[in-house]
Amino acid sequence: MPEKIVIVGNGIVGLGNALHLRRAGHDVTVVDRTPLDEGTSTGNAGGVAGAAFLPIPEPGLWKTVPALLLNPLGPLSIRWRDLGKLAPWLYQFLRACRPDAYRRGIEAMGNLMSLAGDAHLEMLEATGLKHLLRQSGVLFVYRSEASCDASAASWQHRARHGFDCQRLGRAGIRNMEPALGEEAQAGYFVPSWWNYRDPKELLIELAAHLRQCGVEFQTGNVAGFDIGTDGPVAVRFDDGATLAFDRVVICAGAWSGRLSAMLGEPFSIVADRGYNTTLPNPGIEIGRTIDFAEDSFVITPMSMGYRVGGAVELASPETPPNYARCEALLTLAKRYLPELNVEGGSQWMGCRPSTPDSVPVISRSAKHGNVFYCFGHGHLGLTGSMVSGRLIGHLMAGETPNIDMAPYRIDLFR
């Protein structure tokens, strides 16, 4: 029967949930503390990047962390003033680096993200937004044949989960992307990688479609929940107003852990802060996303310019941005693309919600029958948004999804 459903979070994951739940006939309201066009989902690299599913914590990673932190151009930084807040998450992260945990993470992420491309194509067909997407694949590049060879296990995992991975030498990658300089010596091409021309445009257009279908949007900071005799019955905003629901879905990104704690189910999640710079006049031509595998950043051609972004900064969501990270990424990009014009760019930072093992929470509450969680997609929020919304729809309808949902439980780390 149709029910009143409140979705907390107006990012792309929240909209993915709204799409599927509205199509199931429910009365859906999406609430968020910030306007739709200001969140993390508006500034990413626009990729439906299923082949990037490998978890960040991997065996032996802890040995390299000190060197990474000492490298000013490195892919990892920590705001030490936030270390106390980060400590519980870091402990679970180190546990996720164990070989058995890493293997479980690979299976969970591979099973989920191998469905992502089709879920996006289905959404675009249903909403009439196919013009926003292009499929040109992705080129992963390495600085040497040896480093490319050393990554063979990761490519075997991708192939096992259905991704076509084509090994290329120096001539192959230069033929595909002539702007690459001598720093790029080997790589892989993956055709099944799509890109939106502007993630902000996608968010706005999808929200407009949802409004036409009857989904309501409301701005307000959720300060808590009203609890009835059988569980939560309404969200409570910081101005005292309330919004009643039959069911609620928590899709609030890096703030989701605070909300789940209010419902008696604390979950350790951090703001994995990513930085990028959009270059309006790049001075070169590239035909697709290029992923610089050893330095953990990408460059993507978009409608407003070329976007250079990536890396990981662990910090509290409220900590002021460190835009020196943007400059570091541009310095790295110039090493690979010597003719790249890095002048006149616009800088951006977004808080990606990351779980300790990189596996998102897509789960019914373990305590409340009318509460659902869908958060923690990390670097793959856009990628996993539509398939995650579909899975929440299955769970809410009492249906059995076509993948094992155990790895995505809210109580996994308890």
Topology:
Elements: E1 4-8, H1 12-23, E2 27-32, E3 47-48, H2 61-70, E4 76-78, H3 83-96, H4 99-113, H5 116-127, E5 133-135, E6 138-142, H6 145-150, H7 152-160, E7 166-168, H8 170-176, E8 186-190, E9 194-196, H9 199-212, E10 216-219, E11 222-228, E12 231-237, E13 242-244, E14 247-250, H10 256-262, E15 270-279, E16 289-292, E17 297-302, E18 305-315, H11 324-336, E19 346-354, E20 361-364, E21 371-375, H12 381-396
Parallel strand pairs: 1-2, 1-14, 2-10, 4-18, 6-16, 14-21
Antiparallel strand pairs: 3-9, 5-9, 6-8, 7-8, 11-12, 12-13, 15-18, 15-19, 16-17, 17-18, 20-21
Overview features:
alpha/beta; 414 residues; D-Amino Acid Oxidase, Chain A, domain 2; six-stranded mixed beta sheet; FAD/NAD(P)-binding domain; nine-stranded mixed beta sheet; globular
